[in-house]
Structure formats: structure tokens, C-alpha cells
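User: Study the chain.
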Amino acid sequence: MHNFIFGIYPYIAITVMILGSIIRYDADPFSWKSKSSQILRRRQFVIGSVLFHVGVLVIFFGHLVGLLTPVAVFDAMGISHGAKQILAMAAGGIAGVMALVGGGMLLHRRLTDPRVRAHSSLADNGILILLVAQLVLGLLTILVSAQHLDGHEMLLLMSWAQGIVYFQAGAAEHIADVHWLFKLHIFLGLTMFLLFPFTRLVHMISVPVRYLWRPGYQIVRSRRHAAK
């Protein structure tokens, strides 16, 4: 079971995420949105959304760089495994708390406000609950990491992630003995990849960055009197 979850399941989840997203965009492009309920309880939405998205972005790119950068690069830069782990714990902890507070605010808003709840689907609430649970697990792994600051367990996680990305045989063996919290954190993360095409998370890969450099424009309205 271990080899399936951490050696085969990652490829299933990633394949479903990619193909499912392409099919959804092609078959039902008008569903490709986050269905914002921003006009309802706006202040709580804005604060929670900013905290959540900033925290999640920092965590995402931190995981991307931290797990997929070859160990030789850190060694060449003179960054020890222990120092890298402490940096990851500090940055990840701050970003994780931000995202958790923001996610908690958004979840509270969705579950307690009748108007927002009526506007939300089961998938909307379910994926947000999973995200909050994933953030809690991530923060709990920091407590585990704090018990051994030599960076050894992080090195095992890096070896697993790079083994999966580079299609190396036996990648699951690298994390056979890591703490169960790390395994649960990984499994839930892969499951969210699997669910990605079927939820509002798809808007993550269609961020309208072109608005940053598009030329400005002005809307001019005129009132023309109808001919009598």
C-alpha cells in the first residue's frame, strides 16, 4: 500500500489534474471561475482572502523550490541541511499561520452566513475544508521537525519529490520511515491534485496576469436623446 500511495498515486493524481483541467476548460469553459461571493460580508472576505492567498502562494513556491532544487545546489551555496530546514520551518510557519487564519475566516464566513452558504456548493465548502486541514497538518509537521534539526527527514522528502518528478524507480522507499504526519500531509496534497479539475481551484491556473501590463482604457457613456 505504501508503494502505491507514494509511488503510483502521485502520477494518477497529476494525470487526472492535467487532463481533467484541459477537458473541463474545453467542454465547459463558463464553469472556469471561482464564483466569488465578494459582495457578501466584504470586509471579512477581503481580509481572509488576502491572508489566505498570500500565505498559500508563499507555501506553494516554498515547497516547489525547497523540494525540487537538487541537494547539490544547496551544498554548492554552502547551505547545510539543518539551516535549510530551519529556514523552511520559519518561513513555512509564518506563511502557514497567515493562510490558516485567512482560510479559517473564509470557512467561517461560508458556513455561518446564510447568504454565503446559499451561494456555496458542496465542492466549494469541501475543498476549503480540505485546504484548512492541509494547513493544520503542515503546521503540525513543524512541531515534528523541531525535534530533529539536522535536516535528515527533509532530505528524505526532497529525495522522494525529485524521484517522482524525474521518474526514478523506488521513489516511495525514501519516505518509508518518515513520520506519519508527513505521509498524511503528502497524501492529502495529492488528493487535492486529484480533485483540482472538479473544484474552484482551477482558477489558480488562469490568474489574469495580463491585466498588469495591458494598456489603460476609459469607458465613455453618452446620452442621446431620441428623435421626437
